[in-house]
Structure formats: structure tokens, C-alpha cells
Design a protein that fits this description.
Layout (H helix, E strand, L loop, with lengths): L9 H9 L7 H11 L4 E5 L5 H13 L9 E4 L3 H14 L7 E4 L6 H9 L3 E4 L1 H9 L10 E4 L2 H6 L3 H9 L6 E6 L4 H10 L4 E5 L8 E7 L5 H11 L4 E5 L3 H13 L4 E4 L5 H13 L4 E4 L1 H4 L7 E6 L6 H8 L9 E7 L4 H11 L4 E2 L52 H5 L12
Parallel strand pairs: 1-6, 1-7, 2-4, 2-5, 3-4, 5-6, 8-13, 8-14, 9-11, 9-12, 10-11, 12-13
Helix pairs in contact: 2-3, 3-4, 6-8, 14-15
Length: about 425
Amino acid sequence: MSFASFCFKPEIVAGIEACGYLAPTPIQEQALPPLLAGRDILGLAQTGTGKTAAFLLPILQRLQDGPRGRVRALIVAPTRELAEQIGDSARELGRKTRLRSVTIYGGVSKHGQLQKLKEGVEIVIACPGRLLDHLDAKAMSLAGVEMLVLDEADQMFDMGFLPAIRRILKYLPGKRQTMLFSATMPDDVRHLAHAILTDPVTVQIAHQKPAETVSQTLFPVATHLKSSLLLELLQKKEVGRTLIFTRTKHGAKGLAEKLEKAGHRAAALQGNLSQNRRREVLDGFKTGTVQVLVATDIAARGIDVAEISHVINYDMPETAEAYVHRIGRTGRATRSGEAFSLASRDESAKVRAIETLLGKRLEQQQLEGFDYTVPPRNTAPEARRPSRPSSQGKPRSAGRPASGGGNRAPSRPGQGPAAARSGSPRRQIFSKS
């Protein structure tokens, strides 16, 4: 199938050709016919499948006819990065349409946004918080919106935006075309879809299976050895542009600093950065001046870089679906990619959930030459004092837990001498019972 089969207007065709799109992706192939016919849609697709163009092209096609200078399409996204990405795509695809758009999010001055709204735009791409600021201040109206898109709906729920979304819906007319896209389908998203979609078409594109172009490897390791193992992996494996996931923004910042000190061109993408710094980090990752980007799931939702060679789960994700979403950022467009996961024994339940979803066990490896027997550091003040006489108690090495962590002396799998001697990639560390 080609884009010619959708009978786009010449101005839209010019944008498609300028972007270098040769053929529609599976989600575009399935979503475009009902969307162009005015149907509501529930789209389930992981990142990198082409869903942005799947909803932008019908918007541009419809808005070519009708009034100008008022808001007729609203696209709501969870993060500033994703909003910027959608805004860039709207400008590229719509370069010949003379349709105007504005990207609205917090962390920057309202002045430029207000000025564009005053001049008149047809498309608004917005994050929920700042959008409500403008609506509550009566700086804009959504009364003329004909098309609504909620993108990355599952992430909006994870970030606590459900109340904001409900408030935004009250500003919208009841008669409209609505599109809801999500990488996963938790109950909250399912309930929202039921409430706001009318007789929707459901399009589901392999949202629970990673691409076959991504090889997956599990590296069992004690929590306190994760950063050391990561440094060894980056040194010994042939990694290119690498995206590393951590559980928290503070963890992302600390890990990026540690990687920088070790000589890597690393940076963190996390919520405490100013918008200018966030854009600078993303631009650096896209151009290659930043080779290793450390991010949380929330911050990474706006990353659209095709040449990521490796995804590394420094912290295992909370859900199996999030794992699929993470590793889907490598191995795109027929390129091969690798996904490494550093999993402690405390994360074994998350590993089993991932394997259940995938329908297979992850290949487990130990990095040759890495010392898995190093015990946790004891940072408690008494650790720096002279040892007590043996008559007053057992020695500290007698299996007592280290201060500040849940790891014990090297008696657990993956930490003992046997683990150090083993180089077998098939060795099963986690129990499957």
C-alpha cells in the first residue's frame, strides 16, 4: 500500500514527500481509513510505530477546508518533549497547508504562547497543566474544536493527569472526532476510552511484543554492583547511542554524573531540568554529542531518535508492558538493537512478569572478568571505628546485613565464588517457581 491510496490533498502529499515517507506503517495503514472517514479510534501501539503521523495526517486533511484563525484541533500530550516532537511533525507535514499551530507547556514564559493564540491558530498541541492555565484565564477557547487527540494516555495517568483531563473535556464540544492512543491498556485508560469515544475503531499494533530486531539479555547482579557492571558493559560491549532507564529522576541525575566522571559523554533527562536545558540535552543526544542518555520512563516519552543502538534497564520497570515500551526505542526501522537489563534478586518478580508476557525466558549472561563477589560497602559510622574484641560478639562478616541496603554478604546467587568462575550465558540465576 502507498500513501496515494488515501487520496490526500496535494498540500498534504507535499508534506509527506518532504518528510521522506515512502509507505505507511502498519498503524497508519489501519488507522488512516477510519480516521479519514471521521470515526473515533482507540490506538494501541508502542513508540516508534508512526502513530504521530497516523493522527496528524487526518487532522491536516480535514482542516484544509473550513474556517481559519480559531482552534479546531487539540492534541494533548503528557510531556514537553513529546509535545515539541508532535509540534515539529505538524509543521513538517503541514508545511504547504498554511495551517498554524502552537505548542503549549509549562516551564517557559506564557507570553509567546499567548501571542500565537492571539494571532490565531488552528492546531494546539498542549500539556494538561499549562493548557488549563490558559483556559481558566479565558486566554483561549476550545468551543470550535472538531478533533481531539489524547496521546500516550497511559503515561498521562501515571503522571496524575486524570483530573486535569476531565477538566479539559468540559471545555470541549460534545460533537467531535476523538482519538486516544496508548502504549498499554490499564483499567484507567480503558474506562476513559469507554467514556469519551463513540463507537470507536480499535487498532492494535504489537503493543505487547518487542520488535524481532531487538536482542534481549538479562544480567543478574546485586544492587550495589549495578553501577560497576554498567561501566564494564559500556567499556566491553560495542555500544553506540545508548538510552539508560532508571526508576527515579534523582537516580538518573546521579548515574549520569557517575558516567561523566568515568569519561562518557553522558547526560540526564529528568524533571528538574529547565526547558532550555532539556532541549539542549535532547538535541545533544540526537546529534551525537551526548552518547549516553539516562532517563526515567516519564522523561523518555518525548525521545524520538532512530539510531539508538542500546537500551539498558538499570532499574527494572514496574510493569512488563513498560519493558516492551522501553526496549522498543532500539531496533527501529529494520535496524538491529540490543537491550540489556541489570536485575537484582529483589527484582526477580518483575523479570518473571516480563518473561510471562514475552512467552519465553530472557537469555541470562554474566560479564566475563567482572567480580561479582565484592560485598556492599558499610557506610555506617561504626564501620570506621576499631573492631570490637571478638569476645563481645560475632565478627561483622558473619552474614550480618550491610547498612542501608537489603543485600547480604556474598551468599546469594550471582555473588559467590561460583558465580565469579561461571561464564555460561545459560546459567539461570532467578528461580522460576
